[in-house]
Amino acid sequence: MLVFSGSSNQTLAKNLAKELGTRLGKIELSRFSNDEARVWINETNPGRIVVLVQSLSAPTDEHLVEFCLIGDALQRLGVKRIIAVIPWLGYSKQDKIFRPGEPLSVKVIAKMLQVIPLEKVITFDLHNLAIPGFFEVPVVNLSGRKVFREYCRKLVTDKTVIAAVDAGSVKSSERFSEDLGGVPLVYMNKVRDLVTGKVVYKSMSEPVEGKTVLIKDDLISTGNTLVEAAKFLKQNGAETIDVCATHHLYVPGAQEKLDQSPLNQIMVTDTIELKSKSKKLKVISVAKMIAEEIAA
């Protein structure tokens, strides 16, 4: 079973192929002079079942079109079943209609992805657990908690606490606490200025003076919440502050803000290709997890 990769996350695809004991399928990706995508699968017999890896990260629309074109090319070469590995499902945060006249974007994307013969989709930490319902094929929503649990166990001491930085991260933080053997939780009270949009922290449930703080989140986007949380924790005496986040979108300017913040270490997975040389970043691969799911 060959592994084919789009241009968005070739490092992960290479590592996945190694975990599966196979190789990357030969593929040529380029662009025409008018900027349209051009795909050529340089394999005469790719097999009946293949793996196609493509994160829908920025530039999202380009990677989406590329995925569909690769899938169509594989189908025309006789491939009958494609296991789609889409570690970061772009448009997944556009999972609701807020105003009349807006599309349900993630549902549209699900339909577009299924123009090719998918057997199943493997992804990570979806923003909304209702999203798999927009697909007509099975969706396996893996969690980055497993790799973080294995890595963070060696960081835990009797001074460690886990901080839930907002209401949306409470459940994730509580599960992470259980993963690490019942590490104490600290709940932080975040408010957002409705005029400026600036995040401000007012209080927390427990003191953090002298504590080593772990923050667990699914996603780093602008980094604003993490920066303000780190500042507040440091002002209240936290010794060190480390972050675990499954997805890092590498939004322009975000990593620079994180680098200048009191954050000590930022642990992310390779669901999205590394786009920073920051010394604070620690990338933990999910290739083995994906391989185990494919082999199951």
UniProtKB/TrEMBL annotation:
Entry annotated with the keyword Transferase: yes
Chain ranges of the Ribose-phosphate pyrophosphokinase N-terminal domain: 1-115
Native source species: Candidatus Beckwithbacteria bacterium RIFCSPHIGHO2_12_FULL_47_17
Keywords: ATP-binding, Kinase, Magnesium, Metal-binding, Nucleotide biosynthesis, Nucleotide-binding, Transferase
TM ranges: none
Catalyses which reaction(s): D-ribose 5-phosphate + ATP = 5-phospho-alpha-D-ribose 1-diphosphate + AMP + H(+)
EC number of the protein: 2.7.6.1
GO terms (BP aspect): 5-phosphoribose 1-diphosphate biosynthetic process; purine nucleotide biosynthetic process
Molecular function in Gene Ontology: ATP binding; kinase activity; magnesium ion binding; ribose phosphate diphosphokinase activity
Class in the EC hierarchy, top level: transferase
PANTHER family from the UniProt entry: RIBOSE-PHOSPHATE DIPHOSPHOKINASE FAMILY MEMBER (PTHR10210), RIBOSE-PHOSPHATE PYROPHOSPHOKINASE 2 (PTHR10210:SF32)
Database matches in InterPro entries: Pribosyltran_N (IPR029099), PRTase-like (IPR029057), PRTase_dom (IPR000836), Rib-P_diPkinase (IPR005946)
NCBIfam families noted in UniProt: ribP_PPkin
GO cellular component terms listed in the entry, alphabetical order: cytoplasm; ribose phosphate diphosphokinase complex
Record-given protein name: ribose-phosphate diphosphokinase
SMART domains attached to this UniProt entry: Pribosyltran_N
